[in-house]
Amino acid sequence: MKKVSLYACLLLNFSLLVIFPYSKASQADKLDELILSRSSQNPPKTFSWEAEDALQTQPSSAYVVPPQEGKRLADKIVTLPGQPYGVNFDQYSGYVTVDHDTGRELFYYFVESPSNSSTKPLILWLSGGPGCSSLGYGAFEELGPFRVNSDGKTLHRNPYAWNEVANVLFLDSPAGVGFSYSNTTSDYDKSGDKTTAKDAYVFLINWLERFPQYKTRDFYITGESYAGHYAPQLASTILHNNKLYNQFIINLKGIS
């Protein structure tokens, strides 16, 4: 606990130095000032990006491309090349269209938990970069169920895989990263944080139609590196739309 507390204090001190680099006031005063500004009826422009940047959407059904049931069945992986014997969980991969006009498609890899998957939360993993594949790094080098053997052809189980305690969804994002792509090359030039959050939101709305059993499940967004931008902006978009339509379109519980 002492290490955690020390780490939290260091983060807080660093964040205050970043926000107020030239201030001679005490950190406690500035922290009070920051908290008051966030809870104010008219917060400073610096802290009110949510309303401006959050995706202004139509109702979620506008993004759904039926039929999704057949797509889920088609996405189910029977076995991966070089997969070890005795895999005891379901896994899926495929594409979700996030923009029909430009032909923008995001690729996902989804692994369910080997035990009690119906009661465990859903976790979205986003690698950073920008430009780092969640499949190549997150899934197969970090927290996924498999690691690649030195022969480059076979796999072995990862004893520390996150799907032991949750159902984990890996998303290659934005388009142009990993297996995600667009049929309109100008999309790659226009890619940015706002577009990435919008596309990830549209992806989730459609993916949840494909996997409706997860619609009410506790949902968490996790990631590393530049996902420190992706995660909070996607979370903001989700919360904004939940509030806009007065319902939990996505049952977001937290980000990490």
Automatic annotation (TrEMBL):
<dbReference type="GO" id="GO:0006508">
    <property type="term" value="P:proteolysis"/>
</dbReference>
<dbReference type="GO" id="GO:0005773">
    <property type="term" value="C:vacuole"/>
</dbReference>
<dbReference type="InterPro" id="IPR001563">
    <property type="entry name" value="Peptidase_S10"/>
</dbReference>
<keyword id="KW-0121">Carboxypeptidase</keyword>
<keyword id="KW-0645">Protease</keyword>
<dbReference type="InterPro" id="IPR018202">
    <property type="entry name" value="Ser_caboxypep_ser_AS"/>
</dbReference>
<protein>
    <recommendedName>
        <fullName>Carboxypeptidase</fullName>
        <ecNumber>3.4.16.-</ecNumber>
    </recommendedName>
</protein>
<comment type="similarity">
    <text>Belongs to the peptidase S10 family.</text>
</comment>
<dbReference type="Pfam" id="PF00450">
    <property type="entry name" value="Peptidase_S10"/>
</dbReference>
<keyword id="KW-0378">Hydrolase</keyword>
<dbReference type="InterPro" id="IPR029058">
    <property type="entry name" value="AB_hydrolase_fold"/>
</dbReference>
<feature type="signal peptide">
    <location>
        <begin position="1"/>
        <end position="25"/>
    </location>
</feature>
<dbReference type="GO" id="GO:0004185">
    <property type="term" value="F:serine-type carboxypeptidase activity"/>
</dbReference>
<keyword id="KW-0964">Secreted</keyword>
<dbReference type="GO" id="GO:0005576">
    <property type="term" value="C:extracellular region"/>
</dbReference>
<keyword id="KW-0732">Signal</keyword>
